């Protein structure tokens, strides 16, 4: 790793190790990797929070970790790669050290998702990809409400402008995954992912 990447990883690890110290999650028999993907406002973090209420995961949320490195994010390509490269190193590090990891990020195209496929292969961690979507009208209302609510429980600064900038580059998930429309009841998909996790990743995705 170069010097900047080493520094970025070290800063993020301080935050994540503190999470582990506070939450003290049970070490799983089989570390798992769950990767959220989807545009801003599609409910990724909400689903992640509901999932971790039932199954212990260390959450790497890029919106939160981005602000560890950049006080006022601009969501540029360079900034994006800086954050994600650090996250890839940390995902592998925590999986190897026995923790299940939930990566809460946009992961919009295969160029970025392939890193996660490779990490899962390298560590032997079963991988579940959850692709979150919602109708544009719903997303726009959510992002408008998020902007209006100064006390919103979110780290994301991404608004409608960022959504419209990112939407054209989103690609279909080429591998088996869980399709999640958060404008509907998330319960059935949540139950499937919980069952998958409790089976140590042995249940086939459908």
From the structure above, extract its key features.
single chain; 206 residues; alpha/beta; Rossmann fold; 5-stranded parallel beta sheet; 8 helices; 5 strands
CATH superfamily: P-loop containing nucleotide triphosphate hydrolases
Order of helices and strands: HEHEHHEHEHHEH
CATH architecture descriptor text: 3-Layer(aba) Sandwich
Profile the largest sheet: 5 strands, parallel
CATH-derived topology: Rossmann fold
Which geometry do the CA atoms define? globular
Q: What count of domains describes the coordinates?
A: 1
Using the coordinates above, name the CATH class. Alpha Beta
Strand-pairing-aware structural class: alpha/beta
Major beta sheet, strand line-up: 2-3-1-4-5
Overview of the molecule:
The structure is a single chain. This protein is an alpha/beta fold and 206 residues long. The protein has one domain: Rossmann fold. It contains eight helices and five strands. The chain has a five-stranded parallel β-sheet, sandwiched between helices. α1 packs across α4 and α3 packs across α4. The N and C termini lie far apart (37 Å). The mean pLDDT is 92.
